């Protein structure tokens, strides 16, 4: 009886598998055995073998064989087979194996089977493999803490984090008339334009001549962040570069290089820059920076319009938290103040036209706001795993607590009327970071000086933090304009400097606040001292992309 009980499932499984497998045609689980006369004749020649297996398996074999012809039966038998010892009737087993084909394969298997049987080794290999298949699970890694150890910027207010933030504290505007090209044909003639910029010491002269400005800004800001973080040549040599990565994005990429290529194409493709395609892609800045540094960890770019930087920062932090990397350069870069960029946004009718008063044109939450002011530049953070930073004695600016992103799923350029996407993003960021809303007392808002966008975000903020009497909100864009894909990173730098200095910058040009806003929440025209517990920085983008990231003093 014991022999019968163990032999039957195996023989049934083996026979079902052998019969169904050779006759599959169009569908892998559909046997044609009942449709082919030729196959039926072959089946007739195997009746003797079936009767033998029936003898070994017992009276229930026929019903087992019948069920094995169904798809579910085959699956069940295949899985159940692993739980049984093999058929010890070697003669029957050898003949069963004959279903597989050539005499050579049969004789080889017979020799292997004979060796196993005579040595006393049971043929439970499938069982052993199943046991080996349940490999030891990798123990859960404790979520690692992420800190900010370096900052790099290229902005209309300077290319050093201290110079940049001191200008913000003093309420200096970086918005002026565009000087790079003639704007006479455009309704907007102002921007947050970088008037003076040099790549000396940061980018090779050869690359500087060929690459788009967004790449030059990106590489410069990235290397400035490394220098600010104390990553000297000696420190760099000791880094495990396999665990260092770069995620710096751009909303529009190399527009100038691509536009120049189109103009050259009007003459001949031979006049085109051979690097126009790679230099136009948003990922190439991160790639070239990694090549310069030899960093072999995660390297890519994310493009979510004006929310790009926050998405890059969040993903970079996640790589560190999951234990995949120890150090990440992350942020965003943009250089869209060119005719096609200005013309495109003018066609969208989203730009301010206060050309006579450039420094007052960007005025978030003011009743006279008429659109955003386009800006350019780059911002890069050096994120690092806490213990890694402590081992090398790094200066820690702040701790990254977490964040989140959502989608409005409403309109291509307009935010959701109720601000539900932004509110959901804030709630998720708090939940993901484990932060109580009462602890957040500073928000660097997205507020781009658009008639509808400013209020939608403001209402979402009040919905989430309205009962917090300590909350203070400002907008960096009132002084530098909207840096598009780079805005989130540059504003993250401002947020971190606020934590470091204990001072938050003013909202300039907020002379006639919209009746819907509360000036007890918004920062006034002068800088304010604030002991920041937790700071939030928001970034929103075309397509309904919302993102919120959280920083706190390192303790």
TrEMBL record:
Q: Predominant location of this chain?
A: plastid
The main enzyme category here is transferase
Q: Which GO terms describe its cellular component?
A: chloroplast stroma; mitochondrion
| GO MF annotation: an example | 3-oxoacyl-[acyl-carrier-protein] synthase activity
**What EC identifiers does the entry list?**
2.3.1.41
Do you know which InterPro entries this protein is assigned to? Answer: 3-oxoacyl-ACP_synth-2 (IPR017568), Beta-ketoacyl_synthase (IPR000794), Ketoacyl_synth_AS (IPR018201), Ketoacyl_synth_C (IPR014031), Ketoacyl_synth_N (IPR014030), PKS_Beta-ketoAc_synthase_dom (IPR020841), Thiolase-like (IPR016039)
Q: Where in the cell is it found?
A: Plastid, Chloroplast
Where are the membrane-spanning stretches? none
Q: What is a biological process (GO) this protein takes part in?
A: fatty acid biosynthetic process
Annotated catalysed reactions:
a fatty acyl-[ACP] + malonyl-[ACP] + H(+) = a 3-oxoacyl-[ACP] + holo-[ACP] + CO2
Q: Keyword Acyltransferase on this protein?
A: yes
Residue ranges annotated for the Ketosynthase family 3 (KS3) domain, each copy included: 143-553
Record keywords, A-Z: Acyltransferase, Chloroplast, Fatty acid biosynthesis, Fatty acid metabolism, Lipid biosynthesis, Lipid metabolism, Plastid, Transferase, Transit peptide
Determine the domain of life of the protein's source.
Eukaryota
Relate the assembly described in the record.
Answer: Homodimer.
**NCBIfam families tied to this protein:** fabF (TIGR03150), PRK07314.1 (NF005589)
Q: Write out the similarity annotation.
A: Belongs to the thiolase-like superfamily. Beta-ketoacyl-ACP synthases family.
State the function annotated in the UniProt record.
Catalyzes the condensation reaction of fatty acid synthesis by the addition to an acyl acceptor of two carbons from malonyl-ACP.
Q: What is this protein called?
A: 3-oxoacyl-[acyl-carrier-protein] synthase I, chloroplastic
Query: Which organism was this protein described from?
Result: Prunus dulcis
